[in-house]
Amino acid sequence: MMTTTSRVRLRGSVAAAVLLGVVGCSDGTADGAGGADGPTPAAVTSERPASGAPSPRTTSSSASSTPVPTDLPQDVLLPASALQPSDGPRTVTSGVEPWVLSTGCDLGRPSGAVQVLSLRQGDGQFEVPVGVQQVAVYADADAAQAEAARVAGAASACAAAAPGSDGGGTRYRVTPLDVGAQGTSIVTDYYGVTADDPAADGIGDAVAVLRRGTAVVLVGAAGGEDSMSGAQARVAGYAQQAWERLCRYQVEGCA
C-alpha cells in the first residue's frame, strides 16, 4: 500500500523526467528550422544576367539593307538642255518597248524589266539627230547585268553580220565604253565606209548602253547627218550624265 509520502515522491520523479526530456529536445531542430547558425536562407533567383561577354545588340546597321528601289521617277532622265536638239519636242513614255537604234539592227527589248521609261527629243527634221534615252530597272543586279550583256551581244552580232538588212551598206562599230558598268558604244556607219577601212570616219549616229546597279540605260543621238566620231564623242558625254542620275539603283545609294 502506497503512502502519501510515496505518492509525492513518485509525482516529483515523473515531473523531473518530463522536464529533462523537454530540455534535451531543445538541442535538436524543429520542423523546417535551421541549426545553431539560424534558419537556412531560401534560394534567390537573380534578375541580373550571368557574367561573361554581353550579348550583341541588333542595330539598324546590322539589320537587312534597305531594298534598292524599282520605281522610275522622271528625274532619272536627262534634262532637255543636256540633249540635242535642246529646243525640240520632248516625249516621255512608260512601258516595255524595243531598245532604240535608228537602223535595222534589232537589239531586242527589256522584257524582264520591272519598269521602263523612254525619252525622245526632237523631230528629226533637217537632218538633225533625235535625242533618245531609255532606262530599264530590274528586280536585282544579276538581271540587269544579264540584259546589258545581251544587248551588247546583239549589237556585236549585227556588226558581224553587216551589211544590215535595210538594203544599204550599213555597218556597225561596237566598242567598249569606259562609263559605268558594262559600257558599250554602238556607232552606225550609214554608208559602209568601214568595210575597207575599219578606222574610217563616215556619216552615222551612235548610242551607248551601260548599267548601274539594277538599272540599264541606252542613250544616244539617232539619225541625222553627223560624223561617226562626232556622234560617238557626243554620246559618250550623254552616257556619263545618264550614269550619274542612276545612283539610287546601286546598293550604296547616292551617299
Salient structural properties:
single chain; 255 residues; alpha+beta; Protein Transport Mog1p, Chain A; seven-stranded antiparallel sheet; globular
Report on this structure.
The protein is α+β, with helices and mostly antiparallel strands and 255 residues long. It has a domain at 74-249: Protein Transport Mog1p, Chain A. Helix content is 24%, strand content 23%. The chain is built from three helices and seven strands, in the order αβββαββββα. The protein has helices at 4-25, 141-161, 228-244, and strands spanning 90-94, 115-121, 130-137, 171-176, 181-189, 203-212, 215-227. A seven-stranded antiparallel β-sheet has the order 1-2-3-7-6-5-4. A hairpin with a 2-residue loop joins strand 6 and strand 7. The longest helix has 22 residues, at 4-25. It is globular.
Structural class: alpha+beta
CATH top level of one domain is: Alpha Beta
Q: How do the SSEs run, as a string of H and E?
A: HEEEHEEEEH
What's the architecture of one domain, going by CATH?
A: 3-Layer(aba) Sandwich
CATH level-3 fold name of one domain: Protein Transport Mog1p, Chain A
Distance between the termini: 119 Å
- Radius of gyration over C-alpha positions, nearest whole angstrom: 45 Å
Kindly report the average pLDDT value.
80
* SS strand fraction: 15-25%
Residue ranges: pLDDT <50 for 5 or more in a row? 1-64
- Would you report the number of β strands? 7
Main beta sheet strand tally, sense and closure: 7 strands, antiparallel
H/I helix tally: 3
| Largest sheet, spatial ordering of strands | 1-2-3-7-6-5-4
Net shape: globular
Helix content: 10-25%
